[in-house]
């Protein structure tokens, strides 16, 4: 079973996606947005890969 866990605060959104297949816990993905009220920073991490972080200007950029 895959489970998405979200932590939504006043200035951030963070999430983790877990797989609980065969009674084992495995982290599939985690990421989030920090300081969403003051030029947010997008963060994404895939297990076994490098962390991706990018500062965003909310008036001129998107994650697409």
Which key phrases capture this entry?
single chain, 64 residues, mainly beta, five-stranded antiparallel β-sheet
Give the topology string: H per helix, E per strand. Answer: EEEEE
Radius of gyration: 14 Å
- Put simply, the count of helices is 0
Low-confidence stretches: none
What portion of residues belong to β-strands? over 45%
Head-to-tail CA distance between termini: 28 Å
Describe this structure in words.
This protein is mostly beta strands and 64 residues long. Helices cover 0% and strands 50% of the residues. It has one domain. Strands 1-2-3-4-5 form a five-stranded antiparallel β-sheet, with no helix packed on it. Strand 2 and strand 3 form a beta hairpin. 3% of the residues are buried. The mean pLDDT is 75.
Which helices and strands, and how do they pair?
Elements: E1 2-8, E2 13-19, E3 26-34, E4 41-45, E5 52-55
Antiparallel strand pairs: 1-2, 2-3, 3-4, 4-5
In brief:
The protein is mainly beta and 64 residues long. The chain has no helices and five strands.
């Amino acid at each position: 079973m895959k489970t998405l866990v979200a932590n939504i605060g006043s200035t951030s959104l963070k999430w983790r996606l877990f797989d609980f297949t065969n009674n084992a816990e495995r982290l599939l993905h985690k990421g989030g947005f920090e300081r969403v009220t003051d030029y947010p920073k997008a963060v994404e991490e895939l297990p076994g890969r490098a962390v991706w972080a990018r500062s965003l200007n909310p008036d001129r950029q998107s994650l697409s």
